[in-house]
Amino acid sequence: MISVAPGTSKSWLTGRTAGRIGVDVGTRMLKFAQCRLTFGIWKVTAVHVLPVAANQLADAAGLSRGLVGESIAGLKLQSMGFKGTSAITALSSAVVTPRLLDLPDGDDDDLAEMVREESDAPATSNVDFWRTRPVQRGKNHMAHVNAVVLPEQPAEGCVVGLEQAGLCCDAISVQSIAMARAVELMAPGDQPVAAIDWGATSPLICICRNGQAEYSRVLRNCGLKSAVDAISADLGISELEVAQLLVSFGIDSSRNGGGVVGARIDALLAEHVQRFQQEVTRTIEFIQQNQPDSVPEWLCLFGGGGTIAGIAPHLTEHLRIETRSWELEPGQLDSRIRSLEFQSLFGVAVGLSTLEADV
């Protein structure tokens, strides 16, 4: 099922709640995280990341043919500090993307039927929605809803694959909901924030506020994979080596000790970063024109893009809006992972873990 109404279950005897294992199924990487609620404070207790098998893409076709199971075969999460087997997952925006709809207001059953009709979803798909803003009053009462369509075969392939790692996935949530929750964990507040999962193929921008996702859009033709592929081909190095260069030297590599290689990375990366900036600007301009009270105060980067050295100040300068990579305070991390690096990779999985909880 798609779960869009997060809740928690708290043990009043111990003051602790164990979150489910959050699994962020990206097109190139699988990210795992688990949190624990201790006396009202969520702490991350375990994380893990692994690449999708055989350099493949975990898109709808890949998930349908069992790529998750192939990627995690033999994985023993319990040996890495994870507790229990209950899991909650979200598929990438290449597979599931929320769509904002304005519909005549009605009860949930009426809205669900209208969402399915508007989405032209196959009968076997799971369709769900959540309201984003108060109903407009006037001659025609309109409800603003985010609608999501979950294709049956990719979802089933993901759930079956996770079972091969001993996980019982009893909820599939939405990437934007998990990002909104993660932003709230990082910086609580009622100001609108643009959360961006800058991943391999289909970056997703989500305007969120008070832990709720209000509007989402896929940023076109600016996934990290195209930049990584270009650098890999030009320098004759592996994808992993490119990633290491980006986290070590990053944007403006030639000025960060990258030398001649850094200068070449700058040249190759510039076009892709500029395209990303254009898509972000286009989205914010749309929001300014159509929903001015939702213009973001700052940007929060998730995913591989958030790990690029120097990317946050670069985007702050060029987009003229404060940009930060998603990161928690040390006190929000268990002592065993207090020095965790590249936290933006795990933000969605952390958000997922806090959406649902077991005693």
Fold topology:
Elements: E1 16-19, E2 21-25, E3 29-38, E4 41-51, H1 60-64, H2 67-72, E5 86-91, E6 99-104, H3 108-119, E7 126-136, E8 142-150, H4 152-163, E9 168-172, H5 175-186, E10 193-197, E11 204-209, E12 212-218, H6 224-235, H7 239-248, H8 259-290, E13 298-302, H9 311-319, E14 323-325, H10 347-355, E15 357-358
Parallel strand pairs: 2-5, 5-9, 10-13, 13-14
Antiparallel strand pairs: 1-3, 1-15, 2-3, 3-4, 6-8, 7-8, 10-11, 11-12
Explain this structure to me?
The chain has helices spanning 60-64, 67-72, 108-119, 152-163, 175-186, 224-235, 239-248, 259-290, 311-319, 347-355, and strands at 16-19, 21-25, 29-38, 41-51, 86-91, 99-104, 126-136, 142-150, 168-172, 193-197, 204-209, 212-218, 298-302, 323-325, 357-358. The longest helix is centred in the C-terminal third of the chain and has 32 residues, at 259-290. The protein is built from ten helices and 15 strands. By secondary structure, it is α/β, with parallel strands linked by helices. Strands 1, 2, 3, 4, 5, 9 and 15 form a seven-stranded mixed beta sheet that branches. A five-stranded mixed beta sheet has the order 12-11-10-13-14. The protein starts with 15 loop residues before the first strand and ends with a strand.
